[in-house]
């Protein structure tokens, strides 16, 4: 999720923290402009407009370089540093990034130690892993290595790299990690609705949850989970409300990017939204060849566009 989507979802509510897309660390200490591109919130105290902290996520395999980049981004005012040891993309894994490091748990620990030592004590350092690379038989060794890692929190995607995003997520393995790790575990994987989170909480014992694709499929998911936690019925946004969000998102993208590229994020979001809203699938079919922002606005509802402009 880029900064525009982070702003939109946190404005709706229910989220306590965001994490940027990963910033690839490979050969050098990156210039400030790179971090500002991934996390423009750094120019506003590291917060979204609604006041939600945005952690900057780093991905790399060299402890010294990771530490140096973490130090730079911390000095830029990042509210926290997150370390990506879970990305399953083949192009990332071939260059020893993301989930590829799950095969070398001691290196993961070394990176965590180096980053922790390089940033101020007040700056949280968190990480995200999976259950293993090829098999969850690797999970015990990963957890054992992380027992000595100076992390603030750990998010665990409850699948291996080989399993990718195929259901199910194995939430019960998170309970094992919680018993031995000295810091909180955040659950991730197959969390599409408030009921999923209730089941995950029951199985894993986790009290915090990272929402990813589910948040794109249902824009009010964070708020719905919060409502359920508070004992009130979690309402589902109506399609007309979602269309207004799409209009706002289009306008924001048109202001940020070249108009020729403003419509692509709308199409990408519609693909996720159709999980909850069949109208999104029909709309995507009608606009998938649209390249003009004004034409997209018309498809979303010209009267809304005129009011928002």
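^ structure tokens above, recovered residues below v
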């Amino acid at each position: 999720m880029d900064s525009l989507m982070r702003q939109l979802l946190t404005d709706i509510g229910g989220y306590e923290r965001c994490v940027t897309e990963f910033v690839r660390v490979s050969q050098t200490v990156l210039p400030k402009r790179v971090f500002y591109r991934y996390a423009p919130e750094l120019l506003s105290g590291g917060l979204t407009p609604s006041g939600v902290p945005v952690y900057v996520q780093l991905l790399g395999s060299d402890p010294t370089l990771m530490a140096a980049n973490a130090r730079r981004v911390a000095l830029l005012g990042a509210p926290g540093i997150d370390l990506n040891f879970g990305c399953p993309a083949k192009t990332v894994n071939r260059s020893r990034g993301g989930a590829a490091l799950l095969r070398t748990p001691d290196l993961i620990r070394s990176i965590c130690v180096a980053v922790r030592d390089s940033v101020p004590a007040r700056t949280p350092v968190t990480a995200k892993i999976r259950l293993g690379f090829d098999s969850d038989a690797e999970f015990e060794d990963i957890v054992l290595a992380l027992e000595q890692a100076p992390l603030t929190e750990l998010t665990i995607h409850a699948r291996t790299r080989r399993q990718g995003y195929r259901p199910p997520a194995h939430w019960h393995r998170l309970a094992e990690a919680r018993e031995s790790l000295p810091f909180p575990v955040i659950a991730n994987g197959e969390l599409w609705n408030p009921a999923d989170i209730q089941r995950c909480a029951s199985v894993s014992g986790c009290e915090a949850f990272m929402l990813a694709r589910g948040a794109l499929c249902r824009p009010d998911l964070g708020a719905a989970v919060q409502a359920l936690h508070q004992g009130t019925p979690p309402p589902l946004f109506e399609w007309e409300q979602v269309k207004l969000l799409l209009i706002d998102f289009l306008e924001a993208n048109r202001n940020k990017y070249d108009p020729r590229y403003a419509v692509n994020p709308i199409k990408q979001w519609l693909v996720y939204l159709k999980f909850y809203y069949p109208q999104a699938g029909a709309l995507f079919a009608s606009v998938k060849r649209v390249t003009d922002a004004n034409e997209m606005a018309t498809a979303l509802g010209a009267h809304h566009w005129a009011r928002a402009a």
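The chain has 14 helices and seven strands.
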